[in-house]
Design a protein that fits this description.
Elements (H helix, E strand, L loop, with lengths): L2 H7 L13 H11 L11 E6 L2 H23 L14 H20 L6 E7 L8 H14 L3 E5 L6 H8 L8 E9 L14 H4 L11 E2 L10 H4 L1 E2 L2
Antiparallel strand pairs: 1-2, 2-4, 3-4, 5-6
Pfam family, one: Nitroreductase
Protein name: Nitroreductase
GO molecular function: oxidoreductase activity
Length: 233
């Protein structure tokens, strides 16, 4: 798969089929993850793959409780997704949140059927500088394998319970960075169409100074590039 196809079409997939992910596919995904750049090549990461049905049932209960906590915050106007980003359209933001809630409801209702949960741990990660490249590599490699997924942090609401269920040696400093749900998606891949264009969210040399280019539409697939990129100024 072309790298740009992976970059443009990898999106959060919450509606997943229950079909198991073969171990050799999991191996390729995780092997890509450990090739990610990380400071000093210290590799302060650990990945816990969970496919045991009983464990998944326990995590499903925690996930639904944790998600309810987050939506209570959202309804109260709290949390990073409660309000749109500066300059964004409030109506578009509300519609995006409505759609995310709908697909999130599906994931919560079918959590036990998710074929693979991947818990990602790190130590002293300086805000995620080392672990998030690895997580993105997981999602890109999964896309190349036809596997979709979503990264979520809601289980941090029950971090102690998760650590106990997984037997995490927290005394060594391990912290849960995120959990990924992975599986073959029910939906279709496609380029995200609801992104603000590059020239609205970028500047050159100083904040809010003109970038010097306009990108009115996605530059992938390649046939769109000639008319999709316009130089200005």
């Amino acid at each position: 798969m072309d790298v740009y196809e992976a970059l443009y079409t990898t999106r959060m997939m919450r509606r997943l089929r229950p079909d198991p992910i073969p171990l050799d596919t999991q191996a390729r995904i995780l092997d890509a993850a450990v090739r990610a750049p990380n400071g000093g090549n210290t590799q302060r990461w650990h990945f816990v793959a969970v496919d045991d049905p009983e464990l998944k049932r326990k995590f499903a209960q925690l996930f639904r409780q944790a998600r309810a906590i987050e939506y209570d915050k959202f309804q109260a106007g709290q949390g990073p997704m409660a309000v749109p980003a500066p300059g964004a359209d409030p109506a578009a933001h509300a519609e995006t949140m409505r759609r995310i809630k709908g697909s999130g409801n599906y994931l919560a209702d079918h959590f036990e059927e998710v074929p693979l949960l991947l818990f990602v741990y790190s130590i002293d990660d300086l805000g995620g500088a080392n672990i998030y490249p690895a997580i993105w590599s997981i999602l890109l490699a999964a896309r190349a394998e036809g596997v979709g997924g979503v990264m979520t942090m809601v289980l941090r609401n029950f971090e102690d319970e998760v650590n106990e269920l997984l037997g995490v040696p927290v005394e060594q400093g391990w912290k849960m960075s995120a959990m990924l749900t992975l599986g073959y998606p029910l939906g279709r891949w496609g380029v995200a169409a609801n992104r603000r264009p590059v020239h609205e969210v970028s500047s050159r040399n100083q904040w809010d100074a003109p970038l010097g280019i306009e990108v009115p539409r996605p530059l992938w697939p390649p046939q769109d590039q000639a008319e999709g990129l316009a130089a200005v100024g």
